[in-house]
Amino acid sequence: MRRAPSEGPSLIGNTIKFGAYGAAFGSTLGVFEGAWKDPHPTKPLRAVGEMAASHAATAALVAAVFGATDAALETVRGHSPANQVVAGCVAGSMIGFQTHNLTRAALGCGVFGTIQAVGAIGMWSPGAEH
User: Fold this and answer.
1) Which is more confident, 26 or 44?
2) Which end of the chain is more exposed for a tag (fewer CB within 10 A), N or C?
3) 2-6, 13-17, 77-81, 99-103: lowest mean pLDDT where?
4) pLDDT in the model for residue 10
5) Domain extents for the chain?
6) What's the DSSP call for residue 115?
7) Residue 124 and residue 19: Cα distance in Å, rounded?
């Protein structure tokens, strides 16, 4: 059953929401990594802040691309577990594209797409309409 476009996720709303979640996750990860590593001898807080900002930017980019791709696919194709797999692949490839490395982009696509596929299979149940 296909949804009307007004019933699907908002492209801008999903992008902002997922980007904000990614930034929060990335900054938290960066703070923990900064606390774990040896501190910078003269400016330890600045080093932790830079690490948190770097991780926040990367995670926000990946999450925002995932949210935008998922919303766009749902608007065009309707609801399907394959949308999340494709969105995971596109989002994962952003990590490689950031470093201009196609091998890393392909690996990111495979890893993130596989994670989404496993999640979609885990949420699937026989006879249920999704």
Assistant:
1) 26
2) N
3) 2-6
4) 87
5) 11-123
6) H
7) 26
Compute the distance between CA of residue 121 and CA of residue 20 in angstroms, rounded to an integer.
Answer: 27
The full length of the chain comes to 130
Angular region, 38: left φ>0, alpha ψ -120 to 50, beta rest: beta
Residue 127: how many CB atoms within 10 A of its CB?
4
Q: What is the mean pLDDT of the chain?
A: 87
Q: Is the pLDDT of residue 93 over 60?
A: yes
For residue 88, pLDDT beyond 50? yes
Question: pLDDT tens digit string along 45-63?
Answer: 888 899 999 999 999 999 9
Phi and psi at 83, nearest 5°, equal -60, -45
**Six-digit token pair at 115?**
């994670």
Residue matched to tokens 């923990």? 32
Place of tokens 């994670």: 115
Cα 45 to Cα 91: distance, rounded to the nearest angstrom: 30
The rounded distance, in Å, linking the Cα atoms of 80 and 65 is: 18
- E strands present in the chain: none
